[in-house]
Known about the structure:
Number of domains: 1
CATH architecture: Orthogonal Bundle
CATH superfamily: Hypothetical protein af1432
Number of helices: 15
Low-confidence stretches: none
CATH class: Mainly Alpha
Structural class: mainly alpha
Helix content: 55-70%
CATH topology: Hypothetical protein af1432
Distance between the termini: 39 Å
Order of helices and strands: HHHHHHHHHHHHHHH
Largest sheet: none
Mean pLDDT: 84
Radius of gyration: 19 Å
Strand content: under 5%
Amino acid sequence: MNSIGFEFVQSLSEELSKGTVKLPSLPDIALKIKNVLEDPDVSAKQVAKVVGSEATFTARLLKVANSAALNSSGTTIKDIPTAITRMGFKMAHSIAVAIAMDQVLNAHSMGKLDQYFKDLWRHSLSVAAFSCVIAKKRTKIKPDEALIAGVLHDVGKIYLLARMEEYPELTEDLQTFEAVIAEWHTGVGAAILEAWRFSDDLVLVADEHEMLDRVPINDQGGASFEADLTDVVQAANLFAHAIEQGNEMDPEWPGIGAFKRLKLDEELIHEIMVQSKEEIDSIVSALQG
């Protein structure tokens, strides 16, 4: 690691250990919807009123509601209250977070890191879509929870990239740049989601999705043999990376703990990666706007 990389890591490590790291705030649209959904008595019309104040969000929400993943009947929805009723409040919140992340990325997407930001966003959406499908097919986890977990799993990378704009020399050394991102994005991502008051499950996803040898812990403090949200995102992350690189199934995947707990054998992996393509593409397209 070069001296600039060491300086960056040292500064970040000190901030994290002291709790003084300057974490970003949750963007307005996501915060507004998150706050209104915390009211147990909120109605679809009340949520729609908040949603309707954001034209970009309104258009994208309708697109998601009418996507192949959610619109099995083929009936087109044209109004927000009906769209929210179809997808549910939590899914609406997930879409809000996705749009908020898109806005954050666009705010920083410039210069030499432009392509990296764009690739990161496409990857996050792909992981979100795969997570949604895997959750529906292989677990009792709600698809909306899996979707938001996929969108946010690499939030630490977004923050690190934004911070690296303060260290332009760091981006000149590709090896150091990638090493810093790989080593620090999980811990930083977990800290951000904790600061944004997301659930412990989502914080764990950010923190452990790269740990292929992880073992989930059950409520009694012992090893769990049931797939959790991090397992779903971990599998989705591997699927997305493989497709981005033009590869098919890795023969070692079925031996990974997450795949065992999800009971994903070669046949089921092929089904999700190939046969669910339309569903995956519809989710990605809707989230992209």
